[in-house]
Recover the amino acids of this structure.
């Protein structure tokens, strides 16, 4: 009992420095912090309390999901507390040579054809109705583009889809491949607004079924196609004029990143453009966030997910033979997107519980909701702090054509300036 009181006395000065008021209650019932605090933490596990003292906020989040800690407060206040309790920069760790070797071996083992399909289905096949609650009507599950400050989430997602199509200079009749096409937002936008022949692939059965239904409802047979197929299994398919990949390479794994870009190179016609849009690490060496945050995401949200710094990604782009012609960082846009998702889920927690409880048991449904509440708000915090980023990388496959004229030496369809994107 005396030991616990000493721990509380150690914690009290830390809590006073936080931007919002916090109270903490131990398994023994002892507590510190003012009544009615903005954030209240009730610990049922001494181990979880030790993680809090150690700044392991990801471990505390895991304890919340498992029911060993109860937390009360708004997501924004909770994340302000989490950031304030960290014991350093979660992206500054540089792994040793041995650590890098182990990480590469682990990456290879995690990203087989079978494991990748299982990992994608673990996340994306949770429940379409659950995702519908907090995504926009098109179910675009990636960073939106707030082209104008007053945009709603739905407007910003449409702006993102159009931003991608404009960067790619999509033209009527072109064959467009979307690697990891999700619920079909990009392939439908590209087909309906730019007249392309759109071909999407996914490993999610729920997403595949949803897109097949929409193709029939929209009467887009022959213009839009979706397959349950891995990007590594494109034998017999002719190269495409343009390629997009949105929110996909985070699932590829660092060990397979060279093969991923080599596949894009092989499947892209000479002179064609490819746009890769994905989450990148804020640190140059880390493949996940420290303080237990990466472990939390891997366990509850994205098993097998790995993040690489944009410099590493562009290294593999160049090594594949592709040329990077434009890169844009949309980091703050993703923070705003995630808060919009978080707010939408928070406003419908009862309905979310009912949806998941109809598919799973009550305990599993409650755990999933706790995990997603922390994941959405925590990811928003990570983007706000710059611990993670979001890059759109536009690449070309040079065609070797050095012909004379205004495009002399371009070797691709990329213009000499960015004006075409914003017209």
């Amino acid at each position: 009992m005396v030991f616990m009181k000493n721990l509380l006395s150690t914690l009290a000065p830390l809590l006073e420095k936080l931007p919002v008021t916090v109270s903490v209650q131990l398994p023994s019932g002892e507590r510190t912090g003012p009544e009615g605090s903005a954030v209240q933490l009730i610990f049922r596990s001494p181990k979880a309390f030790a993680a809090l003292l150690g700044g392991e906020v990801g471990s505390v989040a895991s304890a919340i999901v498992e029911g060993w800690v109860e937390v009360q407060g708004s997501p924004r206040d909770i994340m302000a507390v989490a950031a304030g309790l960290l014991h350093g920069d979660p992206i500054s760790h540089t792994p040793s040579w041995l650590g890098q070797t182990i990480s590469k071996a682990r990456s290879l083992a995690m990203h087989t054809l079978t494991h990748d399909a299982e990992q994608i289905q673990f996340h994306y096949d949770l429940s379409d109705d659950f995702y519908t609650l907090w995504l926009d009507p098109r179910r675009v599950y990636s960073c939106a583009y707030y082209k104008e400050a007053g945009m709603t989430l739905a407007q910003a997602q449409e702006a993102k889809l159009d931003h991608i199509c404009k960067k790619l200079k999509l033209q009527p009749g072109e064959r467009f491949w979307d690697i990891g096409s999700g619920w079909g937002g990009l392939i439908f936008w590209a087909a309906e607004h730019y007249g392309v022949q759109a071909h999407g692939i996914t490993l999610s059965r729920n997403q595949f079924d949803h897109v097949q239904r929409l193709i029939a409802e929209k009467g887009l047979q022959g213009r839009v196609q979706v397959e349950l197929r891995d990007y590594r299994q494109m034998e017999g398919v002719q190269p495409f004029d343009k390629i997009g990949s949105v929110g996909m390479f985070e699932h590829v794994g660092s060990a397979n990143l060279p093969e991923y870009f080599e596949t894009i190179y092989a499947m892209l016609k000479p002179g064609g453009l490819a746009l890769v849009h994905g989450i990148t690490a804020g640190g140059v060496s880390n493949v996940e966030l420290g303080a237990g945050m990466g472990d939390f995401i891997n366990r509850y949200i994205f098993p097998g997910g790995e993040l690489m710094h944009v410099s590493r990604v562009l290294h593999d782009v160049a090594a594949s033979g592709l040329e990077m012609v434009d890169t844009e960082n949309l980091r703050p846009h993703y923070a705003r997107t995630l808060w919009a998702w978080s707010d939408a889920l928070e406003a419908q927690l009862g309905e979310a519980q009912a949806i998941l409880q109809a598919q799973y048991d009550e305990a599993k449904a409650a755990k999933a909701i706790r995990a997603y509440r922390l994941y959405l708000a925590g990811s928003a915090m990570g983007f706000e702090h710059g611990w993670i980023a979001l890059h759109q990388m536009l690449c070309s496959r040079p065609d070797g054509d050095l012909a004379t004229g205004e495009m002399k030496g371009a070797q691709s369809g990329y213009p000499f300036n960015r004006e075409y994107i914003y017209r």
